[in-house]
Amino acid sequence: MKKAVQLLIAILIVQGAGIIGSFAIFSAIPTWYAGLVKPAFAPPNWIFGPVWVILYTLIGIAAFLAWRNGWERKEVKVALGVFGLQLVLNAVWPIIFFGLHSLSWAFVNIIALWLVIVWTIVLFYKISKPAACLLLLYILWISFAGYLNYSILVLNQEKSVVCTMDAKLCPDGSYVARIPPKCDFAACQETRAVNLYYYNSKLDKDESGNIACSRDGLAPVERKIPITKTPIQDTIKLLLLGELTDEEQVQGIGTEYHLEGFSLKGASLQDGVLTLEFNDSKNRTVGGACRVGILWFQIEATAKQFPEVQEVRFLPEEIFQP
After folding, report:
1. Which of 6, 94, 170, 281 could form a disulfide with 21 if both were Cys (CB 3.0 to 4.6 A apart)?
2. Are 102 and 96 in contact (CB under 8 A)?
3. Which H/E stretch holds residue 260?
């Protein structure tokens, strides 16, 4: 049991270092990094995540194998101390490269990282040969990453410019910045048009002029959303924000959304039945039959614009009850 806990701790510490470094990556990939000139052998962006998850797991196991030889032994303490140093250098590299946009200092960092990894392998070999072997894939990948860093540095030396800090508004409401080498705006993310169905009481009157509380009052407003693998969920989440333009409100379109404490937790689609699971921590979906019906209709109509959705079910079942 103790060894299992040690193994888990070792892996979590290493994965944690990877998470720290990753914060600098996500925003830079589609903007700054996309504008760099890269060598032909540069791998696609998607491959880095899976590779590092595997490597960090192997690195954590290697640390565990060294650790279990006895923390009280001087050689184990020294080996793990050097291991910790390379872990710090590992976490700092993406911050320098992607966060600070410093290709040269990132290259200096990765050379230091390579040397400390070699030092770690030598020390690990003296106390646990399997631990040392588990770091071989790591040193190979760092060697490749170092060469890639150097190649990008060389290819972009003459194109190192500082762009102005202005931004462009994209159709989906997001912003993109200018990127080198020509300081053009980065490409906006591809979008698609969807309808959000809100409510217009002017369209929902019975013969006596009273509000009928029916689907006749639903009024679509067009929005743009990024093209992702979850368009239905993205559209429902956008609907729940309840954001309407002044012009739409003048037309009589309104909604009670956004409801505080009410959010979409998950969605699943099977055989044409869309099941939406919500969180309603403040019970904002209960009330009179007219009110909850209109709230229900807005989500249902928005979901059913997608041809693959034939029926909509809500969880938990007690929400939207009069």
Report:
1. 94
2. yes
3. none
Nearest to 149 by CA among 97, 112, 100, 99: 97
CB atoms within 10 A of CB 256: 16
pLDDT top residue among 134 and 14: 134
- The helix-helix angle for 2-22 and 74-94 (nearest 10°) equals 30
User: Considering only CA atoms, which of 151, 152, 174 is closest in space to residue 31?
Assistant: 174
Residue 235, pLDDT > 80, answer: yes
Q: Where are the domains of the chain?
A: 2-155, 159-188, 191-315
**Top-tier CATH class for 2-155:** mainly alpha
Q: What is the Cβ-side half-sphere exposure of residue 165, based on CA atoms within 13 angstroms? A: 0
Q: What is the pLDDT of residue 226?
A: 84
Residue of 19, 7, 86 lying closest to 49 (CA atoms): 19
Does the pLDDT of residue 150 top 80, yes or no? yes
- Contact residues for 81 (Cβ-Cβ < 8 A; gap 6+): none
209's CB contacts (< 8 A; 6+ apart) are none
Element (H, E) at 315: strand 311-315
Please report, for residues 5, 58, 70, 243, the alpha-carbon distance to residue 224 in angstroms, rounded to integers and kept in the order given: 48, 42, 58, 13
**Of 262 and 35, which is predicted with more confidence?**
262
**Quick check: 211 and 201 in contact, CB under 8 A?**
yes
* pTM over cut 0.70: no
The mean pLDDT value for 180-202 works out to: 85
The per-residue pLDDT for 181 is 67
Q: 136-155 vs 48-67: helix axis angle to the nearest 10?
A: 140
Question: What size, in residues, is the chain?
Answer: 322
CB 237 within 8 A of CB 264: yes
Partners of 311 in beta bridges: 273
- In this prediction, residues 128-152 reach a mean pLDDT of 93
Quote the pLDDT of residue 245: 93
